[in-house]
Amino acid sequence: MDGATGSTTRAGMRNRLTAMAREAAKFGAVGGAGVLVNIGVFNLVRHVTDLQVVRASIIATVVAIAFNYVGFRYFTYRDRDKSGRTRELTLFLVFSAVGLVIENGVLYAATYGFGWDSPLQSNVFKFLGIGVATLFRFWSYRTWVFKALPVRETVQQAESFLVAKENKSSGAHTGTGGTHSSAGRVR
Q1: Which partner from 15, 36, 70, 104 sits 20 to 30 angstroms from 112, CA to CA?
Q2: How far apart are CA 102 and CA 91, in angstroms?
Q3: Position 175 pLDDT exceeds 70
């Protein structure tokens, strides 16, 4: 590999890592707010009702899933393909349901398997379950639900934007003989 190819490869890798870090930060911001919603609703339901721990947790998880979908679609993944909303929502709900089972499975095991059901223990294992489920959700949402636009489509959109900007800035117009600038030269 020559020097130019190596630096191009490193720059491409750096760009991909930067994009992944930005995506993870946005996912984390929405997810962090979702965790607050989840834990808040969980504790509210436990405080005002006599529901069992896992049932209260499932209600809280469902509320957080709805909150997170809005955040992911309109903040984290707003630049992703929006053409198949029904498919997207269906996959989001399927993978969220798997995450719900993971999250509440941890709480269930702690509560009914080990008898750890004090309010503090329930919150600790609720939080731990959210953490484990978050790893699954990040992978599944970015891979299957909020799919990136195909590279060709992205490149075409960028090129059309650049051409339109170039034509606007140079005062170019299209005639029968090709594209001419305001000076009349054929490009």
Answers
A1: 36
A2: 17
A3: no
- What does each C-alpha distance from 110 to 20, 130, 156 come to in angstroms? 34, 14, 52
Is the dihedral angle over the CA atoms 99, 102, 106, 107 positive or is it negative?
positive
Summarize the confidence of residues 53-79 as an average pLDDT: 94
Nearest-CA neighbor of 31 among 145, 136, 143, 147?
136
Residues in the chain: 187
Q: How many Å apart are CA 56 and CA 115, to the nearest integer?
A: 17
pLDDT band at residue 9 using 50, 70 and 90 as cut-offs: confident
Query: Which pTM was predicted?
Result: 0.69
The β-bridge partners of 180 are: 173, 186
Residues 6+ apart with CB under 8 A from 9: 1
Rounded CA-CA distance 105/107 in Å is 5
Q: Is 179 helix (H, G, I), strand (E, B) or coil?
A: strand
Give the integer Cα–Cα distance in Å for 103 and 93. Answer: 15
- Which pair of tokens denotes residue 182? 């305001």
- 3-class secondary structure, 178: strand
Residue 99, pLDDT above cutoff 50: yes
* Residue 186: predicted pLDDT: 46
Q: What confidence tier does 57 reach under pLDDT thresholds 50, 70, 90? A: very high
* CA separation for the pair 47, 37 (Å, rounded): 15
